[in-house]
Write a structure and sequence with these properties.
Two copies of one chain form a homodimer. By secondary structure, chain A is an alpha/beta fold. Chain A contains 16 helices and 31 strands. In chain A, the strands form eight sheets. The first copy, chain A, has a five-stranded parallel β-sheet. The first copy, chain A, is globular, with a radius of gyration of 27 Å.
């Protein structure tokens, strides 16, 4: 049975739906429309075009075999009819018609459909600031804007950039400017940390420190009030606290789903935006599918609603739509929210819930922070990785994992391994025994993920009681109070530097000597144990517990403290 | 309740059991014995010591904070009593005694235990070849032998090495010799490929080609018969087919569990070797635990028995033992068999079953082979990765995954992500939607794992019908028969080189022109479709199917064929 499928939107979910359907039903007809003339592009690649890593903007629109994905490509290679600069203005579900406006000719028309796919994507969250229309201000939402921004730098000599918003795109753009173009780059964020809600303040501070070392300036808890210009070009950003010079301004304050067309057609949408779909990606009208940045999906950890506007989701959902258009029974069960963001020589990544979001979702959540090498410690090339595991105390279920590490694939590999299990609701024991392939060039015999889960196990049992680098720094700042006894339990060679720097406050007893030198430890002060990464301070805590001395240990040790930027 | 725990074996599972138990019960006593005087070493690091990547053998015995894990370390830092050069000769389970012999003093004695841990490890599989006792011949099973072998190269000027066995250790040693020391290195293997049973012949051939390009010679289907020497030093290896000069010989023909002590004590063991344990790592005697290379565990995919002698398993199992010694209820549920092996600038890795082992285990198994970039194709640094997915046709369950890729962490990260899910018995659809964190520097919007599962889905549906590079090469070798029509469906620029080289046999119609040039394709020959990686040849196959023309496409395309070493 030949059918006519109309697809609205031709960036990611749209083309994937169209092409998958055509492969299953080559005899059916597909018409794909898009209001822009640039279609099927990799929007996530925009920061890498701005940075110059990707030399031509056209590369974001080509296949891996160098063909441009334009109307001709979709016709010849995919047998999909594509109309660009054509906008869907309304849907008549009863008559099964999409009303359209052709922006090239100015003419209106209509398309009849048997099945309809809505893949209208998302739009940048508009801040509607005074001065937003000035030249040099951009929401970097499509390849045209990407080209305009890069031209500001390469042709117009922009030398000062302000980024509004410290989420993924904001951080990637900050790197693009300051790494490749040595532009004075400032990030203004209304929250008190970068990647708010995605990672803990401890990990965020590590990312911030790394970016500051690479020349990026951050202003947190600060709101942008207006943009000011000269001769129609932006020159200044006015925030709630200061004025910052700028000749390029990027506004990256998140995105909102384009659900107006669906909403006006009476399709069920979420209160806070986004088209509602079932696991088959069907809307409330069984003849209309929706996929990509315009829909909300199920959070597989909590069962609640998740908005995850990512190209990876759009493509997976598009395939499900294509299969089901052809009468199949494919399912998109939801997502756990995996993400990764490269920042200079480091990266941040995560999956599932951060401690903050878990607590907001009423879980009895806790987290542990671990620093460990990413491969065998005797292997010549290795790097420290910091991971944080979020766990429900009651059920011991893993709720999420986040990390800060090198820019290679080692950390994202760990995040992906945990992400892959999250929908099965693993417990601490499952990650403790998670089977990471072992060989010294790739991992330790006890991989950092296993140790991380063991640490959570020990924390839940009350054996490992510690604080992260942020809390440690607060305790250290109160060192004159005399309430704390800072005990470095490394060998003397490692501790001496700090003993000399802080003779009144820094003490040293190597972990192996604790039992015999127990008399040196005061009983009337809180003992704060420190070592390189937290392993020996945990051992010391066990020994002190055995002797009835209460203590707290620094999770992640001096390694975490250094990355955090808070070395005593 | 204070108890005395005796631990037999002090390499990996033993120390982990001992230390974990002591952390939970600091008031109890642990005595750990080992028949060697070198304990707690990273045996998996030996090839990297031989290669020189690890400069001192002692590094394999130190902690990440540079302390040597010797008797003193275990006493001071772990409060574990350790006796080296002390061998357990028998166990009296009724009297709860271990009889021992002290090889330093020659004296016999006995240790009373409340609980006993057997962590006696494994021994290399002995081939008992004539000439095995010659100098320069080694089973590289401990740090002493590692030092001896490296001395052969650095001090005695060895220049020709023969490795017997092309498993993990054999390949790692082959790399160690030929990469760092430019030694003429030959690997002799009785099977017809490297890593037999672990990977398909297609992937094995890619690994072989890469190692041959790096100067290693392979002889397959060849048995070593004898070793011959001069003045007590090995000089020649005699195989079933030839004589090979050698001044170093490594015998790496697998390992066998050291289960004699347990067997003689009447503990249940597997017919083919290995102590049987329950999920709590208890043997058939509830007061005796066993862990590490001396035990067999459950295969979590098939439910059958698995022997997986790896340091990573030993450490995970040791922690379970330690917890349970202290009255806990920790479990080691089994394993899926993840592995990775670095070979020069590439690596091979896998988890679960290969197609061969799946078929041997009576699964209705099939596999698909995919070549794809490891990150966004527009990102400047990227590499091709080859993955093979093994699937049960009836249940669509994922049985295993194997791969050949670069030496970085990208491929092992994919293998680990799938490995993490295997115990949950995922289906093709689960991997199709597996949520790999997406950002262009780390992955494609549709990650190679997703595409791999989609490919399996299409193969199961009969839509994607193809062959791997090995089978393609067989077809190509029969090109003069006239039975096949080799059709390159890339753009002319990519195909021309082969058209010129093979004018009579290589044909070209770009995929987008197939419908209009259908007349050029003969109906009386099998059409063999070829493109870069298999994506366009699959599209072409769909188009030909639609027009009633039967075809076969080359899985992995020219990219796989090149890596395989079989470019036309």
């Amino acid at each position: 049975m030949s059918q006519h499928v109309v697809v609205i939107g031709a960036v990611a979910a749209g083309p994937k739906s169209a092409c998958r359907f055509k492969r299953l039903e080559p005899g059916s007809r597909v018409t794909m429309i898009d209001k822009s003339d640039v279609i099927s592009y990799g929007g996530c690649g925009i920061p890498y075009y701005v940075s110059g890593d990707v030399s031509e903007a056209m590369q974001l629109r080509t296949t891996s075999f160098h063909m441009v994905r334009d109307e001709k490509f979709f016709k010849e290679c995919k047998d999909v009819d594509t109309m660009t600069m054509v906008e869907a203005t309304s849907i008549d579900r009863e008559a099964k018609k999409v009303y359209i406006r052709d922006h090239k000719t100015g003419k209106d028309g209509a398309l009849d459909y048997d099945k309809l796919v809505i893949a209208t994507g998302a739009a940048p969250r508009r801040l509607n600031l005074p001065g937003e229309g000035l030249k040099g201000v951009s929401y970097v939402s499509n390849p045209y804007e990407a080209v305009r921004i890069r031209d500001e730098v390469t042709k117009n000599g922009a030398s000062k950039a302000v980024i509004v918003g410290a989420g993924f795109i904001g951080l990637e753009m900050a790197e693009a400017f300051s790494d490749m173009w040595s532009i004075e780059t400032t990030v203004v964020e209304i929250a008190d940390q970068l990647m708010p809600r995605y990672i803990s303040s401890a990990l965020a501070h590590m990312g911030q420190t790394h970016m500051e070392e690479n020349g990026v300036t951050f202003h947190f808890e600060e709101q942008v009030k207006a943009l000011e210009g000269e001769d129609g070009h932006v020159r200044r950003v006015i925030t709630s606290k200061r004025t910052i010079e700028a000749d390029v301004v990027i506004i990256s304050a998140g995105v909102v789903p384009n659900d107006v067309l669906a909403r006006e057609a009476g399709l069920a949408c979420h209160d806070r935006g986004g088209i509602l779909v079932d696991e088959g990606m069907r809307t409330s009208d069984p003849d209309i599918f929706a996929a990509g940045d315009c829909v909300v999906v199920k959070n597989q950890i909590s069962g609640s609603t998740l908005y995850l506007p990512m190209g990876s989701m759009a493509n997976r959902q598009g395939r499900v739509v294509g299969t089901n258009l052809a009468g199949g029974d494919a399912r998109f069960e939801g997502a756990v929210g995996s993400w990764v963001c490269k920042i200079f020589e480091s990266s941040m990544a995560g999956a599932g819930m951060s401690l903050e979001t878990a607590l907001m979702s009423d879980y009895d959540a806790m987290s542990v922070l671990l620093v460990q090498l990413d491969r065998a410690h005797f292997y010549p090339t290795k790097e420290l990785m910091t991971l944080e595991l979020v766990v429900d105390r009651t059920t011991r279920q893993i709720l999420g994992i986040q990390g800060f590490g090198s820019a290679g694939d080692a950390m994202v590999g760990r995040i992906n391994a945990v992400a892959a299990t999250l929908k099965y609701r693993p417990t601490v024991a499952d990650i403790s025994n998670l089977e990471m392939a072992y060989s010294p060039p790739f991992s330790s015999a006890v991989d950092i993920l296993n140790t991380l889960a063991n640490m959570a196990d020990n924390a839940l049992a009350g054996l490992n009681r510690g604080v992260g680098p942020d809390k440690f720094r607060e305790l250290w700042n109160e060192r004159e109070s005399g309430r704390y006894f800072f005990l470095d339990c490394r060998e003397a060679g490692d501790a001496n530097k700090y003993m000399e720097k802080h003779p009144a406050h820094w003490h040293n007893i190597p972990q192996g000597q604790i039992y015999e030198r127990l008399d040196e430890i005061p009983r009337d002060r809180d003992v704060i144990l420190v070592c390189n990464t937290g392993a020996r301070s945990y051992e010391a805590q066990i020994m002190l517990d055995h002797k009835g001395v209460r203590s707290t240990n620094l999770h992640g040790g001096m390694a975490a403290l250094k990355k955090w930027g808070g070395e005593p």
